[in-house]
Design goal:
With 268 residues, the chain is α+β, with helices and mostly antiparallel strands. It has eleven helices and eight strands. The longest helix is centred in the N-terminal third of the chain and has 26 residues, at 69-94.
Length: 268
C-alpha cells in the first residue's frame, strides 16, 4: 500500500480535477476556545487540515449585481463540487488507516448568541493562508495568485501526520481599495470586513430578514392582513432561499477584485 504523504494527497486530488490544494498544521488554526473545542470533539488527535479550493467562474460573477441568480446557482454547485472532492479524499485517507473529518464549508453552522451563525467550526480562510494558497485581502477574503478571491474553500481535518505545504509570503492584495469602493453595504474598510454589516445586506433573505418579517405579522390587526402578507413576493423570496439553501445576493467584493481577473474578448 502506498504511504500517505502530502505528495500522494495532492496527486489524488489533482487526478480528481482539483486545482488548489494545500496542507496546514492544526496548531496555528486554534486561535480561540471555539475552534479548539470543535477540533477536540470531531478529531481529538488532529495533526493537520487539508484545504481545497474550487474556482468560481468569473463570467458568472460579472453578471452581478444586475442579476445575482446565476452566481447563487453556481455557488450552490461549487459547494456540491467541493464537498464531493472532500468525501472522496476522506475515503482515500481512511483506507490508509487515518481519520478524516469534513469541515462544513457553509451550512450547517453553530447557532448561538456568541457567533450569530457567522463563524464555522474552523476558519478555512486562515487554513488556506497557512497552507500557502494565498494571502488575506482587505475584504478578509483569501486572495490567490491566479484567481484572486474567486475561489470557494473546503477543508478536511485528519490525524495523519503529513507535511504542511509551504506558506506563501507574497501579499496578493494590491492595496487598490477597489473592494472598499465596490462594497454597497460599506462593510469593508482599511481595517477589514465587518460581518455584522455585510451579512444583512449580502443575505437579504436570511434569518434576520425572516425574523423581521415575522415581527411585522404581530402588528397586523386582522387575519386577512396577515394572510395578505403571507402571499406577498417577500415570502416567495424566502421560500426560494430556504429551498435552495443559498442566501447570498451580493458578490461585489469577489467580482470587483482585479487580482487574477481574466481579460475577455480575445480572438481565437
Amino acid at each position: 500500500m502506498e504511504e500517505l504523504t502530502t505528495e500522494s494527497v495532492i496527486k489524488f486530488l489533482k487526478t480528481e480535477g482539483v486545482e488548489l490544494i494545500g496542507v496546514s498544521p492544526i496548531e496555528p488554526l486554534l486561535t480561540d476556545r471555539r475552534y479548539k473545542d470543535n477540533v477536540n470533539r470531531i478529531c481529538p488527535s488532529a495533526k493537520c487540515v487539508i484545504v481545497i479550493g474550487t474556482i468560481f467562474p468569473q463570467s458568472v460573477l460579472d453578471a452581478c449585481p444586475e442579476n445575482p441568480r446565476p452566481a447563487r446557482y453556481t455557488l450552490d454547485a461549487l459547494y456540491s463540487e467541493g464537498t464531493g472532492y472532500c468525501i472522496k479524499l476522506a475515503r482515500f485517507i481512511e483506507k490508509k488507516g487515518f481519520r478524516a473529518v469534513l469541515i462544513p464549508a457553509y451550512l450547517p453552522v453553530e447557532m448561538n448568541y456568541e457567533t450569530f451563525g457567522l463563524k464555522g467550526d474552523l476558519n478555512l480562510k486562515h487554513a488556506a493562508f497557512e497552507a500557502g494558497l494565498g494571502s488575506r485581502g482587505k475584504s478578509d477574503l483569501l486572495i490567490t495568485k491566479n484567481y484572486g478571491p474567486r475561489v470557494r474553500l473546503f477543508g478536511l481535518i485528519t490525524d495523519a501526520d503529513i507535511e504542511p505545504t509551504p506558506k506563501d509570503d507574497i501579499d496578493y492584495c494590491r492595496d487598490c481599495q477597489v473592494c472598499i469602493k465596490s462594497c454597497p453595504s460599506g462593510a469593508i474598510s482599511e481595517s477589514g470586513c465587518d460581518p455584522k454589516v455585510c451579512s444583512p445586506y449580502a443575505m437579504k433573505n436570511g434569518l434576520p430578514s425572516i425574523l423581521k418579517f415575522i415581527k411585522t405579522l404581530e402588528n397586523e390587526s386582522s387575519p386577512e392582513k396577515i394572510f395578505k402578507k403571507l402571499r406577498s413576493l417577500e415570502i416567495w423570496d424566502f421560500w426560494q432561499a430556504l429551498s435552495q439553501g443559498s442566501f447570498y445576493e451580493c458578490f461585489m467584493c469577489i467580482q470587483s477584485c482585479p487580482v487574477g481577473k481574466i481579460k475577455f474578448g480575445k480572438k481565437n
